[in-house]
Specification:
Order of helices and strands: HHHHEHEHEHEHEHEHEEHHHHHHHHHHH
CATH superfamily of the largest domain: P-loop containing nucleotide triphosphate hydrolases
Bound molecules: guanosine-5'-diphosphate
Largest sheet: 8 strands, mixed
Number of helices: 21
Strand content: 5-15%
Pfam families: SRP54, SRP54_N, SRP_SPB
Shape: elongated
CATH architecture of the largest domain: 3-Layer(aba) Sandwich
Mean pLDDT: 81
Main location: membrane
CATH class of the largest domain: Alpha Beta
Helix content: 55-70%
Radius of gyration: 28 Å
CATH topology of the largest domain: Rossmann fold
Distance between the termini: 30 Å
Family: Belongs to the GTP-binding SRP family. SRP54 subfamily.
Protein name: Signal recognition particle protein
Number of domains: 3
Membrane topology: Peripheral membrane protein
């Protein structure tokens, strides 16, 4: 779902060719694409502007690590800055209060407030907290009953419903019940509106003054897009937000709202809603959202890994050959040696920009170490001529090779077939390479 993003950024890879330190021209060029990519990921415009300016300041003049291209370097800087902006991970709920600690849930209607209240109750119950749920939503029909049902499913306390009672009165009753019955936490689920309106804000503020919450969690749908800025700003200004919960992260959203809301409020994103079920709540991991926004988290971590492990000379040699569409058994052997260092074949290919699609074809290319050792042994039993020209390997040679490495002819056949498949892919890669993709990948 983030392909266009990935593609955009890999086109950034293609354009940058310089060496040494990142030049202003390189960075400006790359950031133009990054800017569009962030907007496509639904990060709000003012946030994008600010973010890009910061990355620019950081990136210009940075040394390009020898084993990556300038484009990759910029993306790495963008990625790191995204994580820094998104904030620290695993920020726990603050429950430091004379019990009961009050958590106030705020947000628009349909954002997932009620569901998230139930999810939090489940989570806190697991931590052996005694939780009371109370709905202040007196407007939406059956909203209070909905929370009551969730409380039942979560097996936590629920404030009895009194029809016609208003939010502030309900709040007072919830606090009283919380105190009297020894609850550790009271979660107040406020009413939402379809749009922000001042009446709603005033009501939530009145509830806040009575409830004195230790946490006020702004719940927002990850799909909110450009409106995230207004939403976050309004709620933070009028009600005061201590943390953010982003829901429907399981859907198609690109996660840009996380960046917007974090940037606008300065408040941590505490949880991500990952589904409708009560256990579908996850602690926030900035690296995952950053990867999602960029659509290429794996590549970034592979670049990092590559910086540490890949034998540069060998990789360069291989890249040059692949560029020409060549891939013989010697190449396969050197590929295997790198695979052992890197973990998996897809990894190496994934690092080469422009190969995202191709890497998808290689889903099954994960190779376990034992298998790699066997495959290496097979190739090592071949003569140099055979390695250069696998077509030489007919039945009698196969038998000799199999005997040489203590495996069966079938194993040799399997390896040859695998080589053929890889060589086919490499040929396609080689065609891409003519556009210069490979050079930047490993050059
Ligand atoms: P509220 O009006 O803010 O209280 O929103 P609700 O809690 O009633 O949620 C509205 C709808 O969104 C319900 O159908 C929920 O099941 C659904 N929902 C809430 N959170 C998530 C989530 O993280 N993922 C998905 N897929 N659906 C969610």
């Amino acid at each position: 779902m983030f392909e266009s993003l990935s593609q955009r950024l890999s086109s950034v890879f293609d354009k940058l060719t310089g060496r040494g330190a990142l030049s202003e021209a390189d960075v400006t060029e790359a950031l133009r694409e990054v800017r569009v990519a962030l907007l496509e990921a639904d990060v709000a415009l003012p946030v994008v502007k600010d973010f890009v300016a910061r990355v620019k300041a950081r990136a210009i003049g940075q040394e390009v690590v020898k084993s990556v291209s300038p484009g990759q370097m910029v993306v790495k800087i963008v990625h790191d800055e995204l994580i820094a902006t998104l904030g620290t991970e695993g920020v726990e709920l603050n429950l430091n209060a004379v019990p009961p600690a009050v958590i106030l849930m705020v947000g628009l209607q349909g954002s997932g407030k009620t569901t998230t209240s139930g999810k939090l109750a489940v989570r806190l119950k697991k931590e052996r907290k005694k939780v009371l749920l109370a709905s202040l939503d007196v407007y939406r029909p059956a909203a209070q009953q909905q929370l009551e049902i969730l409380a039942g499913q979560a097996d936590v306390g629920s404030l009895p419903i009194i029809m016609g009672e208003m939010p502030v009165a309900i709040t007072k009753r919830a606090l009283e019940m919380g105190r009297k019955e020894g609850y550790d936490v009271v979660i107040l689920d406020t009413a939402g509106r379809l749009h922000i309106d001042q009446e709603l804000m005033a009501e939530v503020a009145a509830v806040r003054d009575v409830a004195k919450p230790v946490e006020t969690l702004l719940v927002a749908d990850a799909m909110i897009g450009q409106d995230a800025v207004t939403l976050a700003h309004e709620f933070n200004e009028k009600v005061g937000v201590t943390g953010i919960v982003l829901t429907r992260v399981d859907g198609d959203s690109r996660g840009g709202a996380a960046l917007s809301m974090r940037a606008v409020t300065g408040r941590p994103i505490k949880f991500l809603g990952q589904g409708e079920k009560l256990d579908a709540l996850e602690v926030f991991h900035p690296d995952r959202i950053a990867g999602r926004i960029l659509g290429m988290g794996d590549v970034v971590s592979l670049v990092e890994k590559a910086m540490e492990t890949v034998d540069q000379e060998e990789a360069e040699k291989l890249a040059k050959r692949i560029e020409k569409g060549k891939f013989d058994l010697n190449d396969m052997l050197s590929q295997f040696k790198q695979v052992e260092k890197m973990g998996d074949l897809k990894g190496i290919l994934g690092m080469m920009p422009g190969i995202g699609k191709m890497a998808a074809q290689l889903k099954d290319a994960k190779i376990d170490n034992k298998a790699v050792a066997r495959q290496k042994a097979i190739i090592q039993s071949m003569t140099p001529a055979e390695r250069r020209n696998p077509d030489l390997i007919k039945a009698s040679r196969k038998k000799r090779i199999a005997a040489g490495c203590g495996l069966s002819v079938q194993d040799v056949n399997k390896l040859l077939k695998q080589h053929q498949q890889m060589a086919d892919v490499m040929k396609k890669v080689g065609k891409l390479g003519q556009k210069g993709l490979m050079r930047h990948g490993l050059g």
